[in-house]
Each structure stands twice: as structure tokens, then as C-alpha cells.
Amino acid sequence: MSNNDVELDPLIQLAIYRLMLVLYDQGITEIHMGGLMRIMGLDNKIAQNFDDERVYIDDNFARYVDQMTSPRTLNQPLH
To answer: What tens digit of pLDDT does each residue of 18-51 get?
Structure first.
């Protein structure tokens, strides 16, 4: 999510990223963020702030999200 003033709960962000990976695995590379948020059950007042945003997923994005959302050990640094 980018330049909007809306802050999302980290658990909601994690769920969105993981859902985006599922969509990518199904061949969907363009995601309408407002629609995705509505599918996840977010209030329309929040989702409408993202109606003009699209995310284009490629292999690099998918790898990044997968790495950032995977469980880590306590001593594993996050870069």
C-alpha cells in the first residue's frame, strides 16, 4: 500500500500480502487493491481509499513478499 494516509493493522497487511501470493500463484499479476480489501472484509470507507491503486506482481515481488511474511527464528536478521 502506498501513498495513502490509512494505516493498516500489521495482521491485515500480512493477510493481504499472503493473499496476493495466492493470486500470483494462480496467474493473476494485476491486483486492484480496493477490491482485494473488500474481499478480505475491510470496511468500504477504508477500501475506497485504495480504489485507484493497482499492484503489479512479478517474480521479484512474489519472492520479496514470501521472504517478508515467512516465519523467522529469533536470531535471524531481517534485511
So the answer is: 888 899 999 999 999 999 989 888 899 999 999 9
Interatomic CA distance for residues 32 and 39, integer angstroms: 11
* Element at 9 (helix H, strand E): none
What gap in Å lies between CA 50 and CA 47, rounded to an integer? 5
The three cell numbers of residue 67 are 521472504
Domain boundaries of the chain, sorted by first residue: 10-69
Sole residue written with cell 500489521: 10
Distances (CA, A) of 14 to 56, 68, 79: 17, 9, 17
